[in-house]
Design a protein that fits this description.
heterodimer, A: alpha+beta, Heat Shock Protein 90, 3 domains, 5-stranded antiparallel beta sheet, 5-stranded mixed beta sheet, B: alpha/beta, Arc Repressor Mutant, subunit A, 5-stranded parallel beta sheet
Chain lengths: 488, 231
C-alpha cells in the first residue's frame, strides 16, 4: 500500500485552504470559549440555586428532627425534602455520622468521593456525575446546629447529619447542546462564506502571476518587446515592474548584439565585394603574365615572381568568391534552385568538368539511378570540395558512391588515406579551421568544407565526416529524395 | 577578332580587360559611363558590348534597354555584383549572357565567341545546313539569312533569342532540359545558370507568341525543360 497524502500544489488551492483553515480556527476558538463560559455559568447557577433551596428546606425541616435520628427519621427527612423540592425534582437522602445515606425513593447512590469530601470539609460540596447516560448534580450538605442563645459555643457545630441531593441536569444539558448546535450552525455557513473571499484573494494573487507567466513565455518565444501593465502597489506589481525592466534590458542587449553581428557580417561581405573590383582587373591580366613568364623572354627571377603573383591572384580570387558565398549563407540570401535530377548525371558531369573523368584516382560507383530534388550547381560545389579534399589530404583511390535509401539519397566520398584525427573531426566543417597548425595555409580557401556543409543544409540534407574502420576518411552527404509526385 | 565596346567605369578593370582582350587579338574601345557608351556605340559600331551594371549616372540596366530598343548587337553583362536579382533583371532587359567579376581573359573570350557564333554549335555541321525557309505556324524561320518573321513581319531578335529559336526549331517536339540548352546554345558548363535560359525564353515568347502566358511555340515541359511546339 502506498498511501501518500497529496497536498494541493497550486497557489489557488493553497490560498483557499489557508483562508479556510484560518476561518475554521477562528470559529472553533470563538465557539469553544463561548461554550466553555456559557456552560460553566449555567451549571454554576443551577448549583447555587440547588444549594440555596436545599439550605432553606433544611432550615425549616431539620429543627424538627430528633437526635440521634433513626433510619425512619432520616427517611422521613428525605421524603419531606423530596416533596418540598417542588419544581426541582431532586432525589434526596440523609445520613448520620457518616452512615449509609438513606434515600426516600430509588435514587442514584451517593458517590463515595462526595461523601468523603463532605466529611473532610464539613461544607456543602457538589459533584457532577453521570448515571445511565444522564448528567446529574450531586450536592452534599452537612447540617450544623443553629446558634442558641444559651449555648453560643455550639453554634455552627456540626450535627453529624448530612443530607445528599441528586438532581438531573437534563434541562441544562439541553441548553448546552443548543449552544453547540448554534455554534455549529454558525461555523459551517461561515466556512462556506469564507470560500468566496478566499477565491477572490486567490484570484487577485493569481491574475498577476498568470500575467507574469505568459509574459515570461512570450519573452522566451523571442517577443522581447513584451511589457506588462503595472497597476496597484503590492509586491506583485513590484515584481511586474522588475519584469518590465528585465525585458527592456534584454531587448536592448539583443538589439545591440544583432546590430553588431549584422555589422560584422556586412563588413565581411563589403570587404569581399570591394576586393572584387581590383581582383577583376588583376585576374583579367594573369594569363598575359603567365604567357610571358613561360615564354622565356623575362629574366628567370622576374618570371618566377610573375608566376607567383599569378597563382596567388587566382587563390585570392577563389577566396573572395568563397567569402562572398559564406556571406550569402549568413545573410540567408543563398537561393536554392532545386530540380528533379538523377545523381548519376550530376556526379558524371562534375567529374567531367573538374577533369577527373579520366583520372584513375577517382572512381564513381553508382549502379542504379538515384533521383533527387537538388540544386545541381550546389551539389557540384559539394562534390568538387569533397573529392578535391580527399585527393589533397587523403590517398587515392577516391570513391564516390551513391544510393537511394528509405526516404533519402546518400552519397559517400571515401579515400584511402590515414583518415581524420579524432581531435580534428568535430571541427572539420568550421570556417578557416586548420587541421595542421604547422601548415599555415592549404590549397583551398579554408572555407570549402564549411560551404559544402551549408549547401547540404540548404537542401534540408546533412553532411557528416567520419573515419572508415579500415582507415580513410568518409564524408556522407544525405539529400531529400525527388518529389514522388513529379516522378510520375 | 572582334570589335568590343567595353562600358566600365573602373579604370583598373578597363585597363585589365582591355589588355587581356587586345592580347588575344581583339579591338577594344572603352566608355566610362552609360551615356558615353551609347554615343560610342553609334560611332564605333562594335561587334559586341561588354557592359558593367554599376555605372555612374545611367545604370547598366538602362543602357542595356536603350541598346536593345534599336540594336540586335550581342550584349554581355560584366558584373561585380553577386546579387542574383541583378543578373536576372539584366537578362530580362535583353542581355545575352553575363560574366561575374573577377573573370580571366580566357573566360571572357570564350563567352564572347559563344555569343558571336551565328548558330548553335550542334547546328554548325555542314550536314545540317538547311535550305530555304521553314514554316512553323505563323512563324517563318530562314536558317540561311537568319531571319525570323511572324505573319511576314521580320522579328528583331537578340542573338541569344535567335540562337535558341533556331536550336529548338531544328527538332520540333524534342524536349531539352535547361542544362542541355545552356550547354548547347550558350556553351556554358552543365552547371551554368539556368535562369539564362528562362530569361531568354521569356523574351522570346514576348516577341513570338500571341499570348505569352499561353505559349504555343516555345512550350514548357514541367519538370523537364522546353520544346518547340508541337503546333
Amino acid at each position: 500500500m502506498n498511501l501518500k497524502i497529496r497536498f494541493p500544489r497550486g497557489l489557488r488551492a493553497r490560498i483557499v485552504v489557508a483562508v479556510l483553515l484560518a476561518v475554521a480556527f477562528g470559529a472553533l476558538l470563538t465557539a469553544g470559549l463561548t461554550f466553555h463560559q456559557a456552560r460553566s455559568s449555567v451549571l454554576e447557577r443551577t448549583q447555587n440555586t440547588a444549594v440555596a433551596d436545599l439550605r432553606i428546606q433544611l432550615d425549616s425541616l431539620a429543627p424538627g428532627l430528633t437526635f440521634p435520628p433513626r433510619a425512619e427519621d432520616l427517611r422521613g427527612l428525605s421524603l419531606q425534602l423530596d416533596r418540598a423540592g417542588g419544581s426541582r425534582t431532586w432525589h434526596s437522602s440523609a445520613s448520620y455520622q457518616g452512615g449509609t445515606p438513606v434515600p426516600a425513593s430509588p435514587a442514584p447512590p451517593v458517590p463515595k468521593e462526595l461523601r468523603e469530601a463532605v466529611q473532610a470539609s464539613g461544607q456543602a460540596t457538589y459533584q457532577r456525575i453521570e448515571r445511565d447516560g444522564r448528567p446529574w448534580l450531586a450536592v452534599g450538605m452537612p447540617v450544623a446546629y443553629a446558634a442558641e442563645p444559651e449555648r453560643p459555643a455550639s453554634a455552627d457545630k456540626l450535627s453529624g447529619l448530612t443530607v445528599y441531593v441528586a438532581l438531573p441536569l437534563d434541562a441544562d444539558q439541553a441548553d448546552i447542546s443548543a449552544l453547540v448546535t448554534a455554534a455549529e450552525a454558525g461555523a459551517f455557513p461561515a466556512l462556506a462564506l469564507a470560500l468566496i473571499p478566499a477565491f477572490f484573494a486567490a484570484r487577485s494573487v493569481l491574475r498577476p502571476v498568470r500575467r507574469l507567466r505568459s509574459g515570461a513565455e512570450r519573452i522566451t518565444a523571442g517577443e522581447l518587446d513584451t511589457r506588462l501593465d503595472t497597476e496597484g502597489h503590492d509586491e506583485l506589481t513590484d515584481l511586474t515592474r522588475s519584469f518590465n525592466t528585465m525585458a527592456e534590458t534584454l531587448q536592448k542587449d539583443d538589439a545591440e548584439l544583432r546590430r553588431m553581428e549584422a555589422g560584422a557580417r556586412r563588413f565581411a561581405a563589403d570587404v569581399a565585394h570591394e576586393l572584387r573590383t581590383p581582383l577583376a582587373a588583376m585576374t583579367a591580366v594573369t594569363e598575359v603574365l603567365d604567357e610571358d613568364a613561360t615564354s622565356g623572354i623575362l629574366p628567370p627571377d622576374t618570371a618566377d615572381a610573375v608566376q607567383l603573383i599569378c597563382e596567388e591572384t587566382r587563390t585570392l580570387a577563389r577566396m573572395v568568391e568563397d567569402l562572398m558565398e559564406v556571406s550569402r549563407f549568413d545573410a540567408k540570401a543563398a537561393p536554392l534552385h532545386a530540380e528533379e535530377l538523377d545523381l548519376r548525371t550530376i556526379v558524371t558531369k562534375t567529374l567531367q568538368l573538374r577533369g577527373w573523368a579520366h583520372d584513375e584516382r577517382v572512381t564513381a560507383d553508382i549502379p542504379t539511378p538515384v533521383p533527387v530534388r537538388a540544386d545541381p550547381r550546389r551539389i557540384d560545389v559539394i562534390l568538387a570540395n569533397l573529392i578535391g579534399n580527399a585527393l589533397r589530404h587523403g590517398l587515392p583511390p577516391v570513391t564516390v558512391s551513391a544510393r537511394a535509401e528509405n526516404d533519402h539519397a546518400v552519397i559517400t566520398v571515401t579515400d584511402h588515406g590515414p583518415g581524420i584525427p579524432d581531435d580534428v573531426l568535430p571541427h572539420i566543417f568550421e570556417r578557416f579551421y586548420k587541421a595542421d597548425t604547422a601548415r599555415t595555409r592549404s590549397e583551398g580557401s579554408g572555407l570549402g568544407l564549411a560551404i559544402a556543409y551549408e549547401n547540404a543544409h540548404l537542401h534540408g540534407g546533412s553532411l557528416t565526416a567520419a573515419n572508415a574502420p579500415h582507415g580513410g576518411a568518409v564524408f556522407t552527404l544525405t539529400l531529400p529524395p525527388a518529389d514522388p509526385q513529379e516522378q510520375r | 577578332m572582334a570589335r568590343v565596346l567595353l562600358i566600365e567605369d573602373d579604370p583598373a578593370v578597363q585597363r585589365g580587360v582591355t589588355l587581356a582582350l587586345k592580347r588575344r587579338g581583339h579591338e577594344v574601345e572603352v566608355a566610362a559611363s552609360g551615356e558615353t557608351g551609347l554615343l560610342t556605340l553609334e560611332r564605333y559600331r562594335p561587334d559586341l558590348v561588354l557592359l558593367d551594371l554599376m555605372l555612374p549616372g545611367m545604370s547598366g540596366l538602362e543602357v542595356c534597354r536603350r541598346i536593345r530598343e534599336s540594336k540586335q548587337i550581342p550584349i554581355i553583362i560584366l558584373s561585380a555584383r553577386g546579387d542574383e536579382i541583378d543578373m536576372v533583371v539584366g537578362l530580362e532587359a535583353g542581355a545575352d549572357d553575363y560574366i561575374t567579376k573577377p573573370a580571366s581573359g580566357e573566360i571572357i573570350e570564350a563567352r564572347m565567341k559563344a555569343v558571336l557564333r551565328r548558330v548553335a554549335p550542334a547546328q554548325d555541321s555542314p550536314a545540317a545546313t538547311p535550305t530555304g525557309a521553314e514554316h512553323h505556324g505563323d512563324l517563318t524561320v530562314d536558317r540561311t539569312s537568319l531571319v525570323v518573321a511572324k505573319h511576314g513581319t521580320e522579328l528583331t531578335l537578340a542573338p541569344s533569342e535567335l540562337k535558341l529559336l533556331l536550336f529548338l526549331t531544328a527538332t520540333p517536339g524534342q524536349v531539352y532540359s535547361r542544362h542541355q540548352l545552356l550547354e548547347q546554345v550558350w556553351e556554358h558548363s552543365f552547371y551554368g545558370d539556368v535562369r539564362l535560359v528562362d530569361a531568354c525564353v521569356m523574351r522570346l515568347r514576348a516577341k513570338t507568341e500571341d499570348d505569352p502566358r499561353k505559349p504555343e511555340y516555345v512550350q514548357t515541359v514541367r519538370g523537364f525543360g522546353y520544346r518547340f511546339g508541337p503546333l
